[in-house]
Specification:
InterPro entries: Disease_R_plants, Leu-rich_rpt, LRR_dom_sf. Pfam families: LRR_1 (PF00560). The protein is mainly beta and 551 residues long. Among the domains are: 317-494, Jelly Rolls (Sandwich); 500-548, no CATH class. Helices cover 7% and strands 27% of the residues. The protein has five helices and 32 strands. The chain has helices at residues 179-185, 191-194, 327-330, 335-338, 510-527, and strands at 6-8, 27-29, 49-51, 72-74, 95-97, 119-121, 143-145, 167-169, 207-209, 232-234, 255-257, 266-267, 283-285, 288-290, 301-302, 311-312, 316-320, 343-347, 352-356, 359-363, 366-372, 382-384, 388-392, 399-412, 423-428, 433-438, 441-444, 452-459, 471-477, 481-494, 535-539, 544-548. The strands form five sheets. It has a twelve-stranded parallel β-sheet with strand order 1-2-3-4-5-6-7-8-9-10-11-15, with no helix packed on it. A nine-stranded mixed β-sheet has the order 12-16-17-20-21-28-24-30-22, with no helix packed on it. The longest helix has 18 residues, at 510-527.
Length: 551
């Protein structure tokens, strides 16, 4: 056994002389070690890995010991461990694992001599209150895990000297509330101006986790530009209402976790230029254009449980329906008939249900709402009983379609609305392109037999312009919805009418306006003497537009 390299003795109780253990060992795997310390005659100088998880150790040795080759020391889940060894005898140590050592009260000052230490895991060490200042001497340290160190009330400012630190986990600590933490995170001259700041955190940080740290708006940093390398930020389960605009400075950020931030109300614009797979504008692929909210492309932006979130800049915004101004969609229903009754709304992005007054949703330039109703209004030119409509765009000279209004009357087939996302697809058969809109929200009918109207105001971009004669096919997905009726109407803009902006005519300019009306009518009739033309009329009193035949 003199050549033995690996010895595994899990939960074995040895009696007698430990000198019989071969000196050739480089890996000792002894879970459940029953003694309170290792015997001094235990000669393991050649060890590279010492794994003694779930042990009964109170201390590793009573006196200092030299293990010059030791690279990994794992004493995790040793619930009786009170103190760490003197580390001066471990010059090669790279990983120190002390996870769930619940009685450990401190770390030996000699830890600063571990110039090769890469990983320090103190997760769940509930009794640790302070870390030694020498931690700033760990020049190779890349990962520091302090999650669950619930009594930790001091992190030395020397931590900023760890220029190699890439991962810092402070989950479930109260460190953000600590005066000592603030004392080194805040420059004294500017602390009153800026509030909480992470200016002194190592700029090398790639991952920062502050889950369940009781981080509030009052101590949320205003300036995140000092963390230019940050790729992952976890702020889950904190009572924050918003994030600072400076998060846009984190151009390398590709993972943002905000799970169960139940007070979160709004989010600023994210640094989308660097987010993997994220498309801020229309996504064009194989002739298809999609206006799907870009949060779905940001696979690692997690906002589940944020039930109060009503605004995500450039993604979506919800507002009370009575505050909505746009006449193009507001004129499609009787606002008074909706009333102020509370309704149940399901948010697919946050996976939450809220009971609130009726809302209007804006996302990626499209506006929609859900209101009670059982039939498509007569103002919709194209109507059909079912989930699909096909028609050709009429040909009118000098006109183009500026927007589409869509009305869908539906009821739910099943009870599980989480199984689908309500979507509308508009396919231009001649150009082989497709516009797709998927709503992030749906209003839940009180009963399964109740019908709802889904109203959508959809501006048509210049990238996807519809022209006269284009055959269009409009489809509602998924088929789990029972589509009772489907209607669509479009709004036109005339190049001629755009030359005369009647909106700016004052009362004293009525004669001029009448002359313009007369001239406009003459020009329209010259285009088509049969009178088969339509004009867009603006009503200044009602602040509304409508497209109709000349009058």
């Amino acid at each position: 056994m003199q050549a033995l390299k690996l010895l595994q003795l899990d939960y074995v109780k040895l009696e007698g002389d430990y000198k019989i253990v071969p000196k050739s060992l480089i890996w000792l795997h002894w879970h459940g070690f029953s003694l309170e310390s290792l015997p001094m005659d235990f000669d393991i100088k050649r060890l590279v890995i010492l794994d003694m998880r779930f042990s009964s150790l109170k201390q590793l040795w009573k006196d200092a010991k030299c293990l010059p080759n030791l690279k990994i020391l794992n004493l995790s889940h040793s619930h009786s461990l009170l103190k760490t060894p003197n580390f001066s005898g471990f010059p090669s140590l790279e990983k120190l694992m002390l996870k769930d050592c619940i009685k450990l009260v401190g770390i030996d000052q000699s830890i600063g001599e571990l110039k090769k230490l890469i990983v320090l895991n103190l997760k769940g060490c509930q009794s640790i209150r302070k870390l030694p200042k020498t931690i700033g001497s760990l020049e190779s340290l890349e990962e520091l895990n302090l999650a669950g160190c619930s009594r930790l009330d001091d992190v030395p400012k020397e931590l900023q000297d760890t220029k190699s630190l890439r991962v810092l986990n402070l989950d479930e600590t109260s460190i953000c509330e600590s005066n000592s933490w603030l004392s080194w995170l805040l420059p004294l001259k500017r602390s009153k101006e800026l509030g909480f700041s992470w200016a002194y955190l190592p700029c090398s940080l790639v991952k920062l986790s502050l889950e369940s740290c009781r981080l509030s708006d009052g101590i949320m940093p205003n300036d995140l530009s000092s963390l230019p390398s940050l790729k992952c930020l976890n702020l889950s389960k904190n009572p924050i209402h918003s994030l600072p605009q400076s998060i846009g400075c984190l151009t390398k950020l590709d993972e943002l976790q905000l799970t169960h931030c139940t007070e979160l109300q709004s989010l600023p614009k994210l640094p989308i230029s660097s987010i993997n797979g994220l498309h801020a504008k229309f996504t064009l692929f194989k002739g298809r254009a999609s206006t799907l909210p870009y949060l779905f492309y940001f696979k690692r932006c997690v906002i589940f449980g944020c039930e109060k979130l009503t605004e995500f800049q450039d993604v979506f915004k919800m507002e009370p329906i009575e505050n909505f101004e746009a006449q193009q969609i507001k004129s499609l229903f009787n606002l008074d008939s909706i009333g102020s009754n509370k309704v149940q709304i399901y948010n697919y992005l946050t996976d939450t249900r809220i009971v609130d007054s009726p809302k209007v949703l804006h996302e990626r330039g499209i506006t929609s709402t859900f209101v009670p109703g059982n039939e498509v209004p007569v103002s919709f030119e194209h109507r059909y009983k079912g989930p699909k409509i096909s028609f050709s765009v009429p040909q009118y000279p000098d006109e183009k379609i500026m927007w589409l209004n869509i009305c869908i009357v539906f009821s739910l087939i099943g009870d599980n609305i989480m199984d689908f996302l309500p979507s509308v697809e508009i396919t231009n058969e001649s150009k082989e392109t497709c516009l797709a809109y998927t709503s992030s929200f749906i209003r839940i009918p009180e009963t399964q037999s109740d019908t709802m109207m889904w109203l959508i105001h959809w501006p048509v971009s210049t990238d996807c312009q519809l022209e006269g004669g284009d055959p269009l096919s409009c489809l509602v997905l998924p088929f789990d919805l029972e589509i009772r009726e489907f209607g669509i109407v479009y709004g036109l803009e005339s190049n001629i009418t755009s030359e005369f902006d009647l909106r700016h005519s004052s009362t004293g300019e009525e004669d001029i306006a009448r002359n313009i009306d007369s001239e406009l009518m003459e020009r329209l009739l010259k285009l088509d003497p049969s009178g088969n033309v339509r004009v867009q009329i603006y009503n200044r009193l009602e602040d509304s537009n409508r497209v109709t035949f000349p009058q």
